[in-house]
Design brief:
The complex is a heterodimer of chains A (about 120) and B (about 120). Chain A has about 120 residues and is mostly beta strands. Chain A has no helices and 11 strands. In chain A, strands 2, 4, 5, 6, 9, 10 and 11 form a 7-stranded mixed β-sheet that branches. A 4-stranded antiparallel β-sheet of chain A has the order 1-3-8-7, with no helix packed on it. In chain A, a hairpin with a 2-residue loop joins strand 7 and strand 8. The mean pLDDT of chain A is about 90. Chain B is mainly beta and about 120 residues long. Chain B contains no helices and 11 strands. Chain B starts with a strand and ends with a strand. The chains are: A mainly beta (about 120), B mainly beta (about 120). At the A-B interface, strand 4, strand 5, strand 9 and strand 10 of A face strand 4, strand 5 and strand 10 of B.
Chain lengths: ~120, ~120
């Protein structure tokens, strides 16, 4: 149980275009989802916290107009990278927390974004 | 500033040996968690230790927590080639009342290589 999927697993796009990444909790309801980015051989950096039905909370230094997050249902959150640039190339990972379980997060397999 | 600092950054051992990784942090925590990441993949939760616990075991894993030194260690006993991965500690910070903020701050990670 507690499986989180991400789609796509990898994507290549051109500079200036927008890319949408989906994060789904497959067998549980997730009131809270988190989005992280990870550069090669580095740690995960939290970008934003997404709560179902409300606006996402962004970490300091993360542009909310560039990284649009929508958590429209208890099983789906999306991250849209708008007007992508090569420096946005990274590994994006989402995690989801089961409603009522404050401490446990379940991670998706990640999405590799390459902007050319 | 980075909450979790891990050492060593890389560890190379032979199968059957024990592997110890350390994590230090700066501020008060509600709990500390250890995760494993295979190259280019998502994270797998290994173990969670609460701030009022000192030691926890799970199979071949042993985690210790010293809140006075703000440090934790992960010991993998009788390592196997399949244990080769990156290992991250993640702190769940506590507010003034000790309650979790519910979001994780990851350390830089230790790359473990176990040679058959």
């Amino acid at each position: 149980g507690a499986v989180v999927s991400q789609h796509p697993s990898w994507v290549i796009c051109k500079s200036g275009t927008s890319v949408k990444i989906e994060c789904r909790s497959l067998d549980f309801q997730a009131t809270t989802m988190f989005w992280y980015r990870q550069f090669p051989k580095q740690s995960l950096m939290l970008m934003a916290t997404s709560n179902e039905g409300s606006k996402a909370t962004y970490e300091q230094g993360v542009e909310k107009d560039k990284f649009l997050i929508n958590h429209a249902s208890l099983t789906l959150s999306t991250l849209t990278v708008t007007s992508a640039h090569p420096e946005d190339s990274s590994f994006y990972i989402c995690s989801a927390r089961i409603a009522g379980r404050r401490y446990e997060q379940y991670f998706g397999p990640g999405t590799r974004l390459t902007v050319t | 500033s980075q909450q979790g600092e891990e050492d060593p950054q890389a560890l190379s051992i032979q199968e059957g040996e024990n592997a110890t990784m350390n994590c230090s942090y700066k501020t008060s925590i509600n709990n500390l968690q250890w995760y494993r990441q295979n190259s280019g993949r998502g994270l797998v939760h290994l173990i969670l230790i609460r701030s009022n616990e000192r030691e926890k075991h799970s199979g071949r894993l042993r985690v210790t927590l010293d809140t006075s030194k703000k440090s934790s260690s992960l010991l993998i006993t009788a390592s196997r080639a399949a244990d080769t991965a990156s290992y991250f500690c993640a702190t769940d910070l506590a507010n003034a009342g000790g309650t979790s903020y519910g979001k994780l701050t990851f350390g830089q990670g230790t790359i473990l290589t176990v040679h058959p």
